[in-house]
Amino acid sequence: MQVTTVGLDLAKNIFQVHGITADGTVAFNKSLRRAQLLPFFEKLEPCLIGMEACGSGHHWARQFQKLDHEVRLMPAMYVKAYVKRGKSDAIDAEAICEAVTRPTMRFVAIKTEEQ
Fold this sequence. Notes:
Elements lengths: L2 E7 L4 E8 L4 E8 H10 L4 E5 L2 H12 L3 E5 L1 H4 L9 H11 L16
Parallel strand pairs: 1-4, 4-5
Antiparallel strand pairs: 1-2, 2-3
């Protein structure tokens, strides 16, 4: 099962990861601790990763790009429209995963460490 798109909801300690395959089937929707995040993405084949743009989002985007993943950051207010119900980390990660695949979505440039 080849994961093509991942939505990542960022947090301080526990991150929610939602991955789908090319046909839209949910491959996983799980939470990871900070120490587990990079090892998890090292094991994945290069894929598209979507995250909300924030201070830590730029840091993680640079880390994932080093692993040959394609990373896209989106303004949080644009992702909010894709939340189908309630508010939880799992639902947010699913919404991010859906939003990153939209052709009309606006993306934020990833900042360098100097910026």
